[in-house]
Amino acid sequence: MALEYIGIAFMTALQPLNLLVLVLSTLVGLVMGVLPGLSATMAIALLTGLTYNFPTQTAIISLLAIYVGAISGGCQSAILLNIPGTPASAATALDGHPMALQGKGGLAIFIATTVSCLGTLISVVFVLTLTPLLTSLALKFTSWEFFLLSIFGILICGTITAQASPVKGWISGILGLIVAMVGLDTVDTIARFSYGNVNLMSGIQLIPVMIGLFGFPEIVRAFKRHSDDQVTKASKFEMKQGFSLIFRNFGNVLRSACIGVGVGIIPGVGEDTGGWLSYWATRSLAPADEKDSFGKGNPKGIISTETGNNSCIGGAIIPVLSLAVPGSAPAAVLLAAFLMHGYRPGPLLMTESPDFLYNVCIYLAFASVAMWLIALGLSKLTVRLLGVNKKYLMPIVYALCVIGSYLINYNLFDVKVMFVFGLLGIVLTSMNFPAAPFLLGVILGPMLDSNLRRALRLSDGSFLPMFQRPICLFFLAFIILLILAQLGVFKVLKGKKLAD
Amino acid sequence: MESKTKEMIFSLVLMVFGVYVAIEGYMIFLRAASAPYFITEFTVSPGFVPVILGVALVFFSILHFISCIREEGKKPGEVIKEHFAEAAAWVKANKRNVDIAFTIGAVIIMGIYTYVLMELLPFWAATLIFLLAIFFYLRTDKWWKNILVAVLGVIAIVLVFQYCFNAALP
To answer: Shortest Cα distance from B74 to chain A (angstroms)?
Structure first.
């Protein structure tokens, strides 16, 4: 039966109208992903309305193609401009942009696009085969686990991005968490840090913060009168070298895909965390002499982040299909779109519409291949951005940042927020504090706060249940070991032992 | 200015900010404990996490501050004095730094666009004025090229967003 469903889905995807919609939607997704500030969530949200009058299968193809395109497209601006197109590609900028500065922008984009395609394809296999197993694991997560997962994510991100001094990364993460506290709290709806301002009461939106932190410093840097104008030479794709690099790092691709799917399946933890965790795993497992090359243009960094964030797509769709619980923010919008088109994802989906799982998988696979072909063509245009006078390009990018911030709520307040966080981004950059943990803090803040307080409320204010759960103990042990290791406690102990 | 000096001063600012967040968190707890909420248990109060975050920020800022003032063969007090003296000298030397003033000028133009023009004018008009102002301020290229790029840029943005993506611009 499954093969029959797969065959029907395959034939549906190959219909001329659907193929055309697939190509156009992927292109739109890629363009929105490339443009800083236009996230995958926004891309799906904006275009869901446009697909309202489409035939159901065509609409589903369109939405999945936009999702895949937007997540993958973010890497291009991360590599070429050091401005992640989407939060998911923030980690890609770490090694991607240094590669572009070394004149290897084309190679970096080729690697990122190819592993993005591979990541999505591998995640499709997971969606098809491991859905029931992985879903049962995610169901074991309670509020305590989600709380510790948030801390774990921020600590890892801080450690990775502030290599010389992890404390700076952790401070940056705490600042992000503090920003996430602004507005009405999600448990009791009491205003915090709002000072009577109605706009602040609704909280600080993620997208303006992201654009401000990452985009603004890059834009302002281009305005310097005696700017160092690091105009990178547009380079060829180096497909042979790219394929060879990916082939040699196929273990990295598989590991990152598994991490991405695992992260994607956990509700609320999205593509950005998947990318960061994959990057962290690759860097941790690298030989000691290679570790320093991460953040300076190591292709392995790009391979892990792009595989990790794209495989999250499949991972995030697994709980959407089986539990009607989205694995990430774009998946949440996708869930709403599925409902709008007459599907009821959840435990009854396989009884009511057994073909839907196979349709989604085949459409995802088609979208990832289409994305690979289109993104490589599109990147020939984006690579040329490097040659454009930045004093022309950056003011236009700023206008795009303004639109990106505005379109979240159609509110000019978000544009002002973007400007304020842009100034903060300049301060953080000049102090060598990484911006990525800050952003992750803003993303994970509500999850940390609401889950901790919900858990404490259920336990009458006692922390004891946290120490009685095996997954929590694993997270706790990992968090404590990470902090002690980074503060050099083990080195001191080792030194004392040797001295004795 | 040396990186350690900047970071030492910044860690002091962060410490003060951490104290403020912790105090504000406690005030939120007091507000939540009174009518109409009556949430008297501190750990489930909306002020609990801000207090924890404020304390954590102060703790890590102190750790960072210590790492900034740790120098072999020197007392911490001496190092702090040296850093402050260096900061004062840097401010004095860079009062008339052309590059910094030029960049601040560009940021002010961006601020005017964000806070004033966007409030008063339609998006296309505000953006056209901003692009023209910044291109001429930065002396990007010849005057006619600046005007051409600004006009074409605005048209392209409006076409893509308003007509292709069907998004309502301000």
So the answer is: 21
